[in-house]
Design goal:
By secondary structure, the chain is of the alpha/beta class. It has helices spanning 2-10, 12-44, 49-96, 105-120, 122-146, 148-166, 169-195, 197-202, 206-258, 264-276, 278-307, 336-342, 363-367, 378-384, 388-392, 411-425, 441-455, 471-474, 494-500, 502-508, and strands at residues 326-331, 349-352, 361-362, 401-402, 429-433, 463-467, 479-484, 487-492. It has a six-stranded mixed β-sheet. Its main location: membrane.
């Protein structure tokens, strides 16, 4: 509920203005049948032209007021809704871009779009519910003035109906949450399959991947249909009950008119209010379903926002290269926790992840990301990263267009372009995590020597830290540090460790 409460509080002034204006609109709507009834009794029945003109004029002013109130109220609410939806998307994006994040792409997609929209719709729901309550209250007062029993039907029947319908809200929340979870899983799997289509074809795993996606998509369809049936059944029940309540009021009023307990104008008022009450009754009856959907989406957003704390004091990296040093690090367990220690956002430090990220654009645009980098040294970078072969493979060269995420390139090509981008940035400390796992042995040796020659010429003050188990890369480092469970267990050159440390040989020379 924290996400929904924050949405209300940070849009409180627009929300307050929207509630007042929408409430005024609904109150005016409820007053229309009352004025029409009074017009019949006081003007039409008496045959007074002056009274008729007066009451028609009042009706005209009432319509002007309700129209103006609705337009201005809706404008305030739509602005608040759009701003809140945008704010939620930014919050989700900021969290999933955290280097500690491990959110699936499909989850990110559904949470930052569908769930952000559903949660922000609360800003629209609150004024509509307030307006429905205002309309019901004005109608109940008007009916009580005409006949106390008619007013009591509204005042007692409405809360009873709402309490009864509210019991279905938890079920709706659960099923909507399941639907969103499974839909995110299906979207994530689809994204992964499209990205890895070339490798899947290479190993002949298309049919297995197709079967897996078919299974997940069917599960998503079942969850969607179950949630839709639940919401549809609830909507049908709420509409039926609301209609029966309004019909009951109209039938009771007809009986009172036949027995002479109310006038013709009062009958018209009651019939008009009974017809009008279908709208606020429907809104109040549907409110539990709306809030349940908003809450389910808000819970999914809150889960993302809680997953990785925004502020956390980071520990110091356990090992750092000295000025001009090329340092190799062999981590015998998962290296992801180690890499997070170097990613402090400093412009002097660049951490190049193992899984390279490319975006739609040209090869040039994927390598040269800032004006500071520019074209200076581009040829040397392309040679050091062996990316010049990727450029030469396309007639357009550096201007060759790349699809989103580089899906048309091989894994080795993506790695080389990402490495070229990192080398061109020339950070004081460059941290590389297994930058050559998708290239052949000959290319790997060329890249290892290229990194060494580019960044560690005589007199260089640049530091490079390579987290890897590749012998080719470790062979060009000045020093190798072996880590186990966050602790340094061995230090030396690649040659000395390979000769004297059986554990090192088992990890690296396998």
């Amino acid at each position: 509920m924290s996400v929904l409460w924050r949405a209300v509080t940070r849009n409180r002034w627009r929300l307050l203005a929207g509630c007042v204006l929408i409430g005024l609109h609904q109150a005016c709507e409820a007053t229309v049948p009352i004025l029409i009834g009074e017009t019949v009794d006081l003007a039409v029945s008496t045959g007074s032209l002056l009274r008729l003109v007066t009451w028609v004029g009042l009706l005209g002013l009432l319509f002007l007021l309700l129209t103006t109130a609705y337009r201005n109220g809706a404008r305030q609410l739509m602005r608040a809704l759009a701003d809140e939806s945008h704010a939620l998307r930014l919050e989700v994006a900021a969290k999933v871009l955290d280097p500690r994040a491990e959110a699936r792409t499909g989850d990110v997609l559904t949470i930052s779009t569908t769930d952000a929209d559903h949660a922000s719709y609360l800003i629209d729901y609150v004024p509509r519910i307030f307006g429905a309550l205002m309309a019901t209250a004005v109608s109940a007062v008007g009916l009580c003035v005409i006949s106390v029993p008619l007013g009591l039907v509204v005042l007692i029947g409405t809360p009873v109906v709402l309490v009864a319908l509210q019991r279905a809200a938890p079920l709706i929340t659960r099923r909507v949450a399941v639907r969103q979870e499974v839909a995110g899983r299906a979207s994530s799997l689809a994204t992964d399959l499209v990205t890895g289509l070339r490798p899947l074809r290479g190993i002949g795993a298309q049919e297995a991947a197709d079967a897996r996606y078919h299974e997940v998509s069917r599960e998503s369809l079942r969850a969607t249909l179950l949630a839709a049936r639940t919401q549809g059944g609830f909507q049908a029940a709420s509409t039926t009950v609301s209609t029966l309540l309004a019909c009951g009021i109209a039938i009771l009023a007809g009986w009172f008119a036949l027995t002479g307990r109310i006038s013709a104008g009062e009958l018209i008022t009651v019939i008009g209010l009974a017809a009008f009450l279908g709208e606020p009754f429907g809104t109040l009856a549907a409110a539990p379903s709306w809030i349940a959907t908003a809450r389910a989406s808000a819970d999914r957003i809150a889960e993302v926002l809680r997953a990785w704390p925004g502020t956390e004091e980071a520990a110091d990296p356990p090992v750092l290269p000295t000025d001009g040093e090329c340092l190799g690090v062999v981590v015998e367990t998962d290296p992801s926790a180690l890499l997070q220690l170097y990613d402090d956002g400093s412009p002097d430090v660049l951490v190049a992840p193992h899984h390279p990220e490319l975006f739609s654009g040209t090869i040039r645009e994927n390598i040269i990301l800032t004006e500071i980098s520019g074209q200076n040294g581009l040829d040397g970078v392309l040679s050091a990263s062996a990316a010049e072969d990727v450029v030469a493979a396309h007639p357009d060269g550096l201007d060759h267009a790349i699809a989103e995420r580089g899906s048309a390139l091989s894994g080795g090509q993506r790695q080389r372009l990402a490495l070229a981008r990192a080398l061109l940035a020339r950070p004081r400390l460059l941290v590389l995590h297994d930058p050559t796992t998708a290239v052949d042995a000959v290319t790997e040796h060329a890249i290892a020597r290229g990194i060494r020659d580019l960044r560690h010429r005589p007199g260089s003050q640049l530091g490079t830290l390579i987290v890897t188990t590749s012998p080719a890369l470790l062979a060009v480092t000045d020093r190798v540090v072996v880590m186990r469970d966050g602790e340094v267990v061995a230090t030396g050159t690649h040659a000395s460790l390979a000769a004297a440390d059986p554990g090192y040989r088992a990890t690296v020379l396998r």
